[in-house]
Amino acid sequence: MKCVRELNRFLPEVYRRGGLGRPDVLYVMSNVREVLEHHRKYGQRYPILRLFCDWCVHKELDRQKVIYGMLVQASELLANSISPGKRDPKEATKLLIRRGGSLLNIPEFRFSLREVFAEQRIDNRIPNEKKWWDAFVSQLLHLVSEKPLAFSTAVLAGETKSGDACKAFSRIKALPHPDDFDKVTRLEVTLEDTGFHLTLATLGGVRFKLPLNGKEPLDAFLA
Fold it and tell me: Is CB count within 10 Å lower at the N or C end of the chain?
């Protein structure tokens, strides 16, 4: 398969150079995307990998089940943090920052990429060596920044009445905040002076910015 051959030609060159740039990461993800198109089982088995592959080449995404799951999870985290009487406010804020910054599920993405590389016999230093993985994720987050994951305008307007998106949006609309500050309809990676953040836009017009956990701690990486 050409995309596999291209990766096995390209990756050793990257390792010899000793560094990764955004064009390198985009090239890798574009070829991985081709692998997923040839082997549909991977897209079904590893939805987070499919999401990141598509995210790299689209300016906005609104049609994947994994996106709706992220929006529901973000909304429920907000509901637990800002709804009256839910929990201690300080503890709720800590929980929101800790879990909210992990919504993109980078460890699962790494596992998925490693599994596909292993099955296709692609040089897998990137997902297996922390130095390379940290560099890869940093450039990847640059690539997907300011490219929202969201519900479609049709879902938000109530023009679509069925499907996974509608089920997820109905679940979000049932959350308790009276001003809809806990109902996340869109999220995107943003780059701030202090690093990458995950920006959550809500139905109530309020935005929340959470520090994004891109790098895995060494003990978690090696587990």
Answer: C
H-helix segments, 101-156: 106-120, 125-128, 130-144, 153-156
Residue 94 forms part of a structural domain: yes
131 lies in some domain = yes
**Domain span including residue 209:** 2-213
- What's the pLDDT tens digit per position in 64-116? 999 999 999 999 988 888 766 655 666 767 777 777 888 999 999 999 999 99
In a domain, 219, yes or no: no
CA–CA gap between residue 88 and residue 219 (Å, rounded): 30
Structural domain includes residue 222: no
How far apart, in whole angstroms, are the C-alpha atoms of residue 218 and residue 141? Answer: 19
- The count of domains in the chain is 1
The verdict on pTM exceeding 0.85 is yes
Within 10 Å of residue 8's Cβ, how many Cβ atoms?
A: 15
Q: 15: part of which helix (H) or strand (E)?
A: helix 2-17
Closest CA to 2 of 132, 120, 136: 120
